[in-house]
């Protein structure tokens, strides 16, 4: 009779317990670890004997085929099948593997659609569009058998010095929660058996590191940690049942997240209700020894991490193998702790349906990549994420335009359209270095032969190519690079200035360079103290502005820059985050007016780096400097506020009506929005709230909800937000999560600084206690 765990009709928990009961200690420990895919390649060929030698008891995960090789989809699927077959057939219990990959701005794999970077997805303020992106990523990942994505990043990013801001969804927990929910729903689908397991990362507080430095300590009190930094995770957990969570590299108030029961068990599981598997960020367990110095040996680091609730070690076994086994044999770690972690891993594998469908169709894999529908989606996301920061009327480009100058290092360089976790940028770590270091100092086994990585691009459309295609033969287009992103070379200035002087309009695309392998300007481990545009790009803008030709400045960068001087010289200023393969077409759609701009800032844009951190949700008293409201050398306000973004049309807000009662009753906020311009367009209507008198200092303005609506000229729609009182809750002096009665101000506007309507109401009744895991999101109805 076959074992219960092999019966697809048996209840899930029975299958898990049956399989667990059959496993030896070595087999259990194997499920808690991972191995690089390229470790099984010898002389340019997959070698099943290496599987037998290196993972004789199987393995929990295989680390990155796509993000470690140059394989195309069919060959990638073939390698996955071969690995899977070797493990299933060569191990006693035949437990299938999970292949994990990166997917922040698209599947990090050769030929996969290069969607805009995560910060750009947030700039759309369009959860439905983000869900479509994640569905496309799911299709491509499943085609090659990758069933675990190390995305989305749910960190609250309020310090633009940090190099990983581009991987986040911005500064606001409610926006992050909404975009993150959509991403996970699209990736996981309705049933994990037909989806890809998502990973919420990095738990917790990672983005508020000391000095904006990657991995640096975080100093946060328990209230701020929960109300702000845990809130997006709480939202995604309750809305999606997200499959896995990844720890932060940092310590919070001295507690390294990878080894803290207070963070990974008490907060993540007990308070927020997470029930899935917690996976280690790469090398973070051994960092308890080498970086945080809270463990004296690898075994002690393993014991601390496992007891804290960290179930799986990635990207390879350094701690959860023999070092952990020694801890068990010495009696310092209970087998119950091992079993708890193994249960979570096995449960995920059963949920993914890997025991029933471990293999994929190799011949069909390539058909899931680079479809016209995927490229069309990528183009739409670029357009919806492009933010028009200022405009004196030079945009959209006039139909009578005759001569256009296109200038700048970002104008015709496909590499600058990449984010740090896009392919091939991410693989520069491997193919550009003899020592082959990856982002956390590990050594990635380097594949050779057909597996060897390289600078492989999908067909990319640069801004120059996009404008050439959009404007056709009717406009004379001249191009000059002007300068590089980095360096002091000004030799290209003369040509750039000349073509600008001869043009009706000049478009200059200045840029950053995202990546992990220096020289770059932004990306993981590439933090900065200066947020200005790099190199001589500011001088190029100044020289072009001096020609008197109307100047459109496009900032193509994953960094949040200080643009005060640039804004003074630009007739129009746009933010284009790393835009991927359709970047040029999507940008051209905005510049030509084919698409009305509707991107909104998911962050506050500082005037100078000395304002950092600067964000919309500051607590009472945090938005000004006493006694004079400002600094001696600058205002305290941002250059461009959170939620800001202009349009080619105009919208009016009217008829605000708020229905409110007791602290137990939902609040309804309704208003009318009308397109009063001559173009159709999308408006992002933002609802903010303020608890005017509370038992602790509350934020001056918190985002409660938002609605993206499309309106034809003169069309009006009524928007109704329903705000549950739990959305107003906070941790009181006794750390109870409560909504108190009293006065609340509700504000509706086009950004956190552009408030159109406002009203104060009073909630009656008693103080009500909630749980953060039970917050009810604001809903929107549009009539």
From TrEMBL:
One of its GO terms (molecular function) is beta-glucosidase activity. SMART domains: Fn3_like. InterPro entries: Cellulose_Degrad_GH3 (IPR051915), Fn3-like (IPR026891), GH (IPR017853), Glyco_hydro_3_C (IPR002772), Glyco_hydro_3_C_sf (IPR036881), Glyco_hydro_3_N (IPR001764), Glyco_hydro_3_N_sf (IPR036962), Ig-like_fold (IPR013783). GO terms for biological process: glucan catabolic process. Residues 683-752 form the Fibronectin type III-like domain. Gene3D superfamilies: Glycoside hydrolase family 3 C-terminal domain, Glycoside hydrolase, family 3, N-terminal domain, Immunoglobulins. Keywords: Hydrolase. Belongs to the glycosyl hydrolase 3 family. PANTHER family: BETA-XYLOSIDASE, PERIPLASMIC BETA-GLUCOSIDASE-RELATED. This is Beta-glucosidase.
């Amino acid at each position: 009779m076959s074992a219960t765990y092999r019966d697809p009709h048996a209840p899930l928990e029975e299958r898990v317990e049956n399989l667990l009961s059959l496993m030896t200690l070595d087999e259990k420990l194997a499920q808690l670890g991972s191995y690089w895919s390229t470790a099984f390649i010898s002389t340019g060929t997959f070698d099943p004997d290496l599987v037998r030698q290196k993972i004789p008891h199987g393995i929990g995960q295989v680390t990155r085929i796509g993000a470690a090789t140059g394989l195309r989809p069919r060959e990638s699927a073939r390698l996955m099948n071969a690995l899977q077959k070797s493990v299933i057939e060569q191990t006693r219990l035949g437990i299938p593997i999970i292949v994990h990959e990166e997917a922040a701005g698209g599947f990090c794999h050769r030929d996969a659609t290069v969607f805009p970077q995560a910060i750009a997805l947030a700039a759309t303020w369009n959860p439905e569009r983000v869900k479509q992106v994640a569905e496309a990523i799911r299709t491509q990942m499943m085609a090659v058998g990758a069933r675990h994505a190390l995305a989305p990043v749910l960190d609250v990013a309020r310090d633009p010095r940090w190099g990983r801001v581009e991987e986040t969804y911005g500064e606001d927990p409610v926006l992050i929660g909404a975009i993150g929910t959509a991403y996970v729903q699209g990736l996981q689908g309705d049933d994990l058996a037909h989806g890809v397991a998502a990973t919420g990362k990095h738990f917790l507080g990672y983005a508020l590191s000391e000095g904006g430095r990657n991995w640096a300590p975080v100093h946060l009190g328990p209230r701020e940690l929960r109300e702000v930094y845990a809130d997006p995770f709480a939202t995604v957990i309750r809305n999606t049942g997200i499959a896995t969570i990844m720890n932060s590299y940092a310590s919070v108030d001295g507690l390294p997240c990878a080894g803290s029961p207070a963070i990974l068990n008490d907060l993540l599981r007990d308070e927020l209700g997470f029930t899935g598997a917690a996976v280690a960020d790469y090398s973070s367990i051994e960092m308890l020894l080498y970086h945080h110095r809270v463990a004296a040996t690898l075994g002690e680091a393993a014991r601390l991490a496992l007891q804290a609730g960290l179930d799986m070690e990635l990207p390879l076994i350094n701690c959860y193998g023999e070092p952990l086994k020694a801890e068990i044999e010495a009696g310092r770690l209970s087998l119950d702790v091992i079993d708890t972690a193994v249960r979570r891993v096995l449960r995920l594998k059963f949920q993914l349906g890997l025991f029933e469908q471990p293999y994929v169709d190799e011949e069909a894999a390539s058909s899931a990549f680079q479809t016209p529908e995927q490229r069309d989606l990528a183009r739409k996301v670029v357009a919806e994420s492009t933010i028009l920061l200022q405009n004196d009327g030079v945009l959209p480009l006039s139909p009578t335009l005759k001569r256009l100058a296109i200038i700048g290092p970002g104008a015709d360089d496909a590499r600058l359209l990449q984010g740090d976790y896009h392919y091939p940028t991410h693989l520069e770590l491997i193919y550009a270095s003899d020592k082959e270091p990856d982002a956390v100092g590990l050594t990635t086994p380097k594949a050779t032969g057909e597996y060897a990585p390289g600078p492989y691009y999908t067909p990319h459309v640069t801004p120059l190519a996009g404008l050439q295609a959009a404007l056709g033969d009717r406009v004379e287009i001249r191009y000059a690079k002007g300068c590089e992103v980095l360096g002091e070379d000004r030799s290209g200035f003369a040509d750039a200035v000349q073509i600008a002087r001869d043009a009706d309009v000049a478009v200059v695309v200045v840029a950053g360079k995202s990546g992990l392998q220096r020289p770059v300007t932004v990306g993981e481990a590439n933090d900065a103290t200066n947020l200005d545009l790099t190199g001589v790009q500011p001088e190029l803008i100044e020289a072009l502005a001096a020609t008197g030709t109307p100047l459109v400045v496009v900032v193509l960068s994953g960094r949040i820059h200080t643009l005060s001087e640039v804004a003074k010289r630009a007739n129009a200023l746009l933010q284009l985050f790393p835009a991927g393969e359709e970047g040029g077409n999507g940008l051209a759609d905005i510049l030509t007016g084919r698409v009305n701009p509707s991107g909104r800032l998911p962050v506050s844009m500082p005037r100078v780096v000395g304002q950092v951190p600067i964000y919309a949700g500051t607590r009472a008293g945090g938005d000004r400097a006493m006694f004079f409201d400002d600094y001696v050398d600058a205002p305290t306000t941002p250059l461009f506020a959170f939620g800001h973004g202009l349009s080619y049309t105009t919208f009016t807000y009217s008829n605000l009506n708020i229905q409110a009662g007791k602290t137990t009753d939902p609040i309804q906020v309704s208003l009318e929005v009308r397109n009063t311009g001559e173009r159709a367009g999308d408006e992002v209507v933002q609802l903010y709230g303020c608890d005017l008198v509370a038992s602790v200092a509350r934020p001056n303005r918190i985002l409660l909800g938002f609605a993206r609506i499309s309106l034809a000229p003169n069309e009006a729609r009524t928007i109704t937000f329903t705000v549950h009182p739990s959305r107003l809750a906070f941790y009181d002096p006794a750390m109870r999560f409560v909504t108190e009665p009293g006065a609340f101000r509700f504000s509706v506007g086009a950004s956190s600084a552009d408030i159109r309507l406002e009203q104060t109401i009073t909630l009656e009744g008693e103080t009500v206690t909630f749980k953060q895991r039970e917050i009810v999101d604001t809903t929107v109805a549009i009539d």
